[in-house]
Amino acid sequence: MEIEQVSKAEGKQGTVKEDLSRQEYTFGAKMIAKLKKMKCIVFGLRGAGIETAKNLLLAGPHTVVVHDDEKAQMADLGTNFYLSDDDVKAGKSRAKACEAHLAEINPMTYFRVHSGPYKLEYLESYDVVVYADDTPLERLAEINDFCHKKGIKFIHVTLFALTISIFSDFAEDHEIYDPNGETERSFVVDKVEIVPKPFQNIKDLLLFTGMDEKKYSQLKYKEKNKAAIDVLRTKGNVKLDEKRAKSISTTELLVLADEKLSKGRSMCGKITTVQRHLLSDGDHVKITEINMSKQTEAKGSSIFKLNDKISNVNSICELKTHRSNPTVFYIGNISGLGSYSGGGIGVQVKLTKKASYKSLRDQIDNPSFETGVANMPQLGEEGKVHLAWLAIQTFKGKFGRYPKYLDTKDAEACVKIAKDSKAAKNLFSFDDAFIQKMAMFCQTETNALASIAGGIVAQEVMKYTGKYTPIKQWIHYHSMQLIDTKKAGKPIGSRYDHYLSLFGESFVKSAKEAKFFLVGCGALGCEFLKNIALTGLGCSEKGEVHITDDDIIELSNLSRQFLFRRRHIGALKSKSAAGAAIEMNPELKKGLKLHTTRVEPKTEAEFSDKFWGSLDFVVNALDNLKARHYVDTKCILFGKPLFESGTLGTQANQTVHIPHKTPCYQAGAPPGEGQGIAMCTMTNFPYEPLHCIEWSRMMFGQTFEDGPSAYEDLRKSGIRAYLEKTGKNIDEEHSILKKTLKWVKIATTRTLRKCVELTMEHFTQYFRDDVKNLIHAFPENSRVQDKKTKEDKGPFWHGRRRFPRPHEFDTSNHDHVEFVYRTTSIYASIFGLEQPGKEEVISLATEVRIPQWKPKDKMDIEIDEDKEKKEEKKSGVSDDEYEEIKAMRKEVEAIDISKLANLHPAEFEKDDDTNHHVDWITSASNLRGWTRRLEPSTRAHCRMVAGRIIAAIATATAAITGFVFLEIYKLIMKTEDPNEYRWSTINLATNVFAIELPADPVESQTREEKYTVEEAGEIKNLTRKITCVPKTFTVYDFIEMKEGKDITLESFVKKFKETHSLKITMLTKYGKSKKGKMLYQEINSKFYENQKKFNERMLRMMKNALQKQRVQKALDGANAMLAEAEKQKSMTILESYKAQYGEFEDPKRTCLVLSASVEPTDRELGDGETIDIPPIKFYFA
């Protein structure tokens, strides 16, 4: 497809507003408000500086100023994406050359370039200053001293070769109101007890039992545990033999001490929650609704520490978690409050804390390294990076320049400087070879590390707001092991000079000739395209850069998808992104292959077998699991490396999947996918606002989408096609027909009055009748009984179950009016009516007669989540439903569809503020929450949850794509050793950088598996053997068969048996396929011949019509199996495949991948045994 660079005339025009929804979901309204007032300046616009400035502008602070008077060099084009050849030729400074591009990123932020010298007092205009330039170390220390004294946040970042060094100083008493950005944990109280305060540690135990502090300090570790054991034996009467005494852990000792040594200890509150509370020591929680027998009303808001005597448990309390029980935590002394009588919910409260930081001058020789950085293969190496960094900076200060490229003399001078430094005596991390290498390459940098540094530093700047934890105080990271000094190339005045200098000519050539596929051009895709352009990947006639995305650009994309501007809104992402990337590197046009098609089974004509086979690797930039799995499957089938990454707010992760060397993506997918809220919780027993929002989203679909859509399907398809379509969906046919007929009746009267009547029906049902029915079924004093023993298990309305209260419609209640107005407005849209006014709607609502509530005779209310999970997989149609289906089909057949009016189903749309959808979700959610006494949710939060908006920000996206590109470098270098690759998990909020070796591929091997079955209400634990042939294999292994397109199923099975000594009993398409879809199944023709003869004989003897019908059915089945057996003798595999699964989307397909069930030919299968083999690749052309 021809690449189009979107001009200012393209896309939606007119005034567009700001949409920070994805960002706000991460940062919150409080941080956004503080950002809007923040002023910052960035000095230096090489790689780290330009990345930082770009990310800051996307975030939208009040002011961003940049300063860089250095003239742009050709090598800068390898890391600064806004510089061009013309800028270098014109002798422009980096800042002036980038000015127009940066100013365009965010018109809501004041941006400008500052040029020339400046005095320290100039910095007082800013809240945060970032130095990413070549300012000498002594001058940096002077600037930092000034900033530290004035309370200005100071950040310094350098990129030397393949290293990142970041220093952060947030001065004295910096306030942090949210250290991690995580959603406050909520919990439901199950039990409250008054217990002795648990021992904190062995010291606490020994001092309590009489040991003095001095004696304790003289004990060694083993002696402390032995002393604790002696105390438990003598004072706690605990019997421990010597064997047990030697093996007992400290935790076990303390648990025993808590139980046995209660006398004389101060008391505390022990709270047990219904589920895991996920809280940590030192957290604070706001507790409400707990009933204690001697508790008085709380006066004002109180905060109680762990050692405080609590006057009212419904307060804010500091907690300590239980050592081993994740549903228990302790609070202060509640011994004066009496006994617990029920109730209780709580939510985590984050209290503002202060943190102080040291100056750069104080930190140079005695650095504090950020503890969250865990580069596992290089653990503890930050010290040697710091020494090398200090030596290079000191060299610069001494000689007025950095060490020259590959100059051994300069490098040796740096080694001496490091050796003589005070820091060397404090760090014990001296590595002269490392210092030499870093010095020799210090004037180079890469786009990968620039992306990482720019993401970290920009996020660090935003911590000025008080949200998230600042770095304390150094981060040093390196990938120097990738540099082979022998392969280093000579700079030639090219945009690729940095990569030539670091990795050599062969790397640059291989990079430019790479053939790969970037799937997705959203936030990740934009960053990847930038890095592709900077590195020159595929940027030649021999290279191929395939990109695709079928999505269009929306306003909300602009805060993180940095290749797009307001003029691009409404345009295709892939087209616009391609145009922007080509501007960064015109050479990209040579290899760029633009697609605008979604990657899925339906598009295999475009993304064919030949296409996948031609690639060197694939980079995923997708935001949904289904698409990721599909691409992963293709990479497995064609043996292509896959680079995966994903973000969620400030968190991100990256994995690389090399065939036969690391696991595939699906083998390492994040756990918990697909887990949701139990239906009984959502429909009857919500205990969190989230449950109400999810219920509202579900009801929106049932109320405004499903019925009108079914009606329109009938109207547009016609009766015959409609019934044929619904008949194929056996499990849902009953509900679809019911909805359709209901809406056929509704649509006969399309007036505003009808809209209001429908609205009042919903209000009455959802918020009055359903609640009263629940109360009728389970009155407030209901008890729970054990089904078998009839033992009383306590009150029904306890823990997660919150006793409800019903609504009665009241025109003076704002929430009631809001729901009625929003519901009526949506119905009016469905009917094609003009939007009504609120007063008119409420006036009509008062005229609607609301029937009195009457208790139902029969109510089926599911209260058992476990039972629900067991039954949710059951399907099928009952006899009664079958009769109802027949009757409803006749009703449909009698409809005159020419008289059906046109309806407009309300497909949920979160981004249109005029359609009432989000307002309806908010109103319905809060009305339902009121019935359970839950806190109301904001409209913004409802929009996020109901709209399935993923929290996304530019900083985490930029950082993680940098980590991905480091791995791509390794593949371009033809790195074979899987231990050279890395998987990364980061959290910019808390400065966590966990970098580890990839796991080994998951192997299938002969094993025994345990499983359970239920027989007559009894659960049985069984074991089955799974025998693998060959003994071990991975997902990357296949059995290949090249037998040609004309081979029949029977011949294929015979050939497989001869080649592999295995008999195929069933053959299906590889992967998920519809139930009953098989290419081949082993059929015992002799058995079905006998069945046929038997049923023919029985049919002749039968007199009863019903019995004859059943026998005829059995006879038909036998004949069908015999016919299938005959067909398999002559039908080719291709014919069978197409008959079952349809024609190929890819007309040039040459291979099928099949799954086979097999049995051994030389023995019988064991009891319950199955044989597991790799998939079969059948080449037919």
Key traits:
38 helices, 8-stranded mixed beta sheet, 1181 residues, 9-stranded mixed beta sheet, single chain
How would you describe what is shown here?
With 1181 residues, the chain is of the alpha/beta class. It is 40% helix and 17% strand. The protein contains 38 helices and 40 strands. The chain is globular.
Strand content: 15-25%
Number of helices: 38
Residue runs with pLDDT of under 50 for 5 or more positions: 1-16, 670-675, 866-875
The biggest sheet, with number of strands, parallel, antiparallel or mixed sense and barrel status, is:
9 strands, mixed
Mean pLDDT: 90
User: Structural class from helices and strands?
Assistant: alpha/beta
Gap between N and C termini, in Å?
A: 29 Å
Strand element count: 40
Rg, Cα atoms, Å: 35 Å
- Percent of residues in helical segments? 25-40%
Q: Can you tell me the overall shape?
A: globular
Spatial order of the strands forming the largest sheet: 19-30-29-26-25-24-21-22-23
